[in-house]
Amino acid sequence: MRWLLSFLLTALLGTVQALSITGSRVLVVIDDVAEKDKYSQFWQDLESRGFTLKFQTPKTPDLSLLKLGALAYDHLLLLPSKSKGLGPNLTPNLLVDYIQNKGNILLTLSGDGSVPSSIASTLLEFDITLPPEKNSVVVDHFSYDKNSAAEKHDVILSAPPSSLRGDLRSYFHGARLLAVPRAVGQVLGNSNPLLAPILRAPETAYAYDPKESEAIEDVFASGSQLSLVTAFQARNSARLTVLGSAEMLENKWFDAKVLGRMGGMQVPVGNREFAERLSMWTFQEIGVLQVGRLEHHLNEPAVKGSAVSSPEINPDIYRIKNDVSYSIELSEWDVDSYKPFTPPGTDKLQLEFSMLSPFHRLDLTPTSKTLNSTIYSTSFRLPDQHGIFNFLVNYKRPFMTNIYEKRTVTVRHFAHDEWPRSFVISGAYPWVAGIGVTVTGWVLFVGIWLYSKPTETSTKKTQ
């Protein structure tokens, strides 16, 4: 019955929510509002998915990301700016605060102009480094579009991105080639585990400043060191996506056909499909996990007097060496509805039963499914150790929102009537009688010894 109620609640949420699980308000910051027509197909795609767009410039006086401590917009889309800064309303501190309040940001760059210093400073907060040259672009002399970049080689042709690892789900994979015009490459630091590259530069690409007249001897970065599209997911599951080429979102590159260096037929690009998937992930329309019902209980029925009932659900206290079961219900939001969650590839969902360190680390196996969720369960015996323990599911993977579910319980010793030699167990009578005889004999001995008067002896005085 409980699982049925959870299923009905999940289904109801799926019908009333917008396509994005966090909201539908999008603020688009653009230098010149008149230039928004260049991205009209992208705006149409967003509006068709239920988003409400508001266009403002960095100089708009009433521009505000937070109002009274709450998000004024659920999502922020920053298009490239030609000015050195974005003004007092879009400082690095305010952008970081926006993410800390669970706002999502799609930040785009362009090699057609210098990157504002405030944007470069913001990216450094997330351990993302941009080339020191202000006009740096990524070029590739082997994989480029012969139609539009026959001389500059700055329109890179790249295969659709694949999964980082075999046990991770790829949300951005497509069937067609991608055209990445005049991209700004990013170098990701090794100290931030929350960063993940979505699209890396080809092995023959490198960062280059077209205004440099001298030959290049030491490049900033090359090959897979450069990320063209980068994802950052905070611990609160807010998302930041850095798109190195804002031109990928323009109409002309949604409908473009490219010609590779080796010639042949012109091939249509998959930029529109990629932009759709990228915005869907950034605005939390895909890759969002939700926890439904969570239960832990004894494996044995509860006995009260002569009545036998089902065990208590989620009790606060257990006894050492109890056999317990644990189950958790998980769903994944996919565009417009919840569906049962299944870890990708060979990945496993695990439960830790820990105090200071895990005493058990067990795989959770799917035991049942509903229309919108999967129920994972496991059973185990509690350790022979009393104390404060946690049932912990800590599932954190790139491109998926984090699951951190902890339930704290007390594990106690055996009670006095639970030991095999307890007074209330008839089989313990010989030991109880032996203890009684020993105590009685000791008390009699002490009493006799204390109250026994020694005999008087007479002594004669000698003169």
Q: What attributes characterize this protein structure?
A:
7 helices; alpha+beta; 29 strands; about 475 residues; 5-stranded antiparallel β-sheet
Mind explaining what this structure looks like?
It is a single chain. The chain is elongated. Strands 2-1-5-6-15-14-12 form a seven-stranded mixed β-sheet, with helices on one face. Strands 18, 22, 23, 26 and 27 form a five-stranded antiparallel β-sheet that branches. The chain is built from seven helices and 29 strands. It starts with a helix and ends in a 12-residue tail after the last helix. With 463 residues, the chain is an alpha+beta fold.
Strand segment count:
29
Mean pLDDT, all residues? 86
Content of β-strand:
25-35%
The shape is elongated
Helix content: 10-25%
First-residue to last-residue Cα separation: 108 Å
The low-confidence parts are: 1-5, 7-17
How would a textbook summarize the main sheet? 7 strands, mixed
The strands making up the biggest β-sheet line up spatially as: 2-1-5-6-15-14-12
Keywords: Endoplasmic reticulum, Membrane, Signal, Transmembrane, Transmembrane helix
Subcellular location: Endoplasmic reticulum membrane; Membrane
Protein name: Dolichyl-diphosphooligosaccharide--protein glycosyltransferase subunit WBP1
Membrane topology: Single-pass type I membrane protein
